[in-house]
Fold:
Amino acid sequence: MTETHRTKQAEDRWNWLWEWANPVKFMSLSGKILPWVMGLCALTLLPGLIWGFFFTPEAVNFGSSVKIIYVHVPTAMLAINIWVMMLVASLIWLVRRHHVSALAAKAAALIGLTMTVAALFTGAIWGEPMWGTYWAWDPRLTSFLILFLFYLGYMALWGAIDDPDTAADLTSVLCLVGSVFALLSRYAVNFWNQGLHQGASLSLDKQENVSDVYWQPLVLAIVGFSLLFVTLLLLRTRTEVRRRRTHALETRERMADA
Amino acid sequence: MIALLIRDLKLAMRAGGGFGLGLAFFLIVTVLVPFGVGPESQILARIAPGILWVGALLACLLSLDRVFQLDHEDGTLDLLATAPLPMEGAVAIKALAHWLVTGLPLTLSAPIFATLLNLQSPGHLWVFVTLLIGTPALSMIGAFGAALTVGLKRGGLLLSLLVLPLYIPTLIFGAEAATRGAAGLENATPLALMAGITAGAIALLPFAASAAIRVNLR
Structure:
């Protein structure tokens, strides 16, 4: 088998996936699944939060403040994972030039920023009764603040450039370099100061885990928040695709007039 | 490459601005801090390495928008893009020129300014050493930020928003190594990590920066 033949075959195997990167196909598919995702989101997020807020016992040493975990943990997880998703989308844009991918990264940035702020705020509210302070220069807190700055820079760069393709290219490069430096900062901050923050709450290691009473609604809330992200992402990406089409139409009209 | 370096250095020396202003800014920051914090020499000596590092970082930031902006405006950048010299090399040389006119003077003057902040004897040496190792990374990261914003009309503020978060790891390790050195503690680990960041930045960022410049020249 020749080399070109093999790569051709490899391409064929993934074609079903890349076809959805076609804006027209993306719009039709996302339009179809959007109501379902929305419904599932409502079905998991609301029960998860209600269960967590009203039907779990108060924890020893924590009092009712433990309930903020149902917002704090999912938003914090998403804040990091959305950046990873943006990194993947940027890579796809740089390698395969699918416009939907670049637009999805752009759409995800604001959601990620919101999740970071939500995690920081709920953390501050939780920290006051528990640690006696709203803010401490703890490694986890500090890395989230740094993540927030990275989101801000990324979005500012999108906003500053007029040409959409140039903006997509430059923000993708920034996202790649930023990811490396964000990771570096994470470990640099660890080195810089030992923290107050508790360890992982959801690791598979049973010793560190929170008890099942809190774990079950928490998982439901995490699924709910993730679906909320997917819903918002689809909505915002659809908006971006439409905005791009409007822009193209306006440009064409101006060209016709001139 | 040498010709490009000499050209950049000449421009920086003769056009005014770059060379002296960064240093003057650094001096002013160092002078302002005691006014803000108070003249107790104990406190000043303790925060001196951090102040010097933050001051050097800001002074470095100040001259970044000149790295590519002027060349972009008069078309030199387009010539460089079509020249036989690869873009990556040109970017590295420009970062080197930026370091020679800002990073190096800052490094050399930092031990003198440290006296103003009452830093005691081993501290001078460590501030000098950490800045010597760390400022090349600052110039290279800054050149990447300048490459991203080169096509923009008013990129200055955006440039600082993009570059400052990227400076965080270098600053943490640099200031940590200097503080530990000044206190007479073991500081090989942060020093090695900072040197690693510098080496990595010099090795990899020219590729990212030249990719950004190519996009901006399109």
